[in-house]
Amino acid sequence: MFPLSLVTAAALLVVWFPLSTLWHQQSEIDAANSQIASIAKQSQDLKDQARSVSSKSAEEMLARSQYQLVSPGQSLIQVLPGDGAGYVAQSAGDPGLQPLVAPLSLTSLNAAARTTAGHKSSHGSFSSFASRFVRTLEFWR
Question: Which of 46, 58, 62, 91 is the Cys-Cys partner for 97 at CB 3.0 to 4.6 Å?
Fold first, then answer.
């Protein structure tokens, strides 16, 4: 039994370890070959893209669309969205995008605020100061 186990152990050392090493190396070679094929495909795609952009008209189109460049003697005009109803509906959430208030309507708003404030503060200077102070800190609510 002992000689048989020695022969089996020797066979494992001689056959199994080199074969497993060869098997792992072959899987690494296959992975490297697939990476090489992928890079070759990407290289071919980039060469095709470079050929398609190398014409003069393609260069001008790319310069106009992506870089906002124009030919000498031309001028670039950008049209911004107007004050149409659709634009106001889109910007209802952001007060910075809402249209400006006319100065005449602003003075009427200030006069209305003064008259309502004048009716509220008839109890003296401390109560008017306190009410103004509380209104100033309303953002704490």
Answer: 91
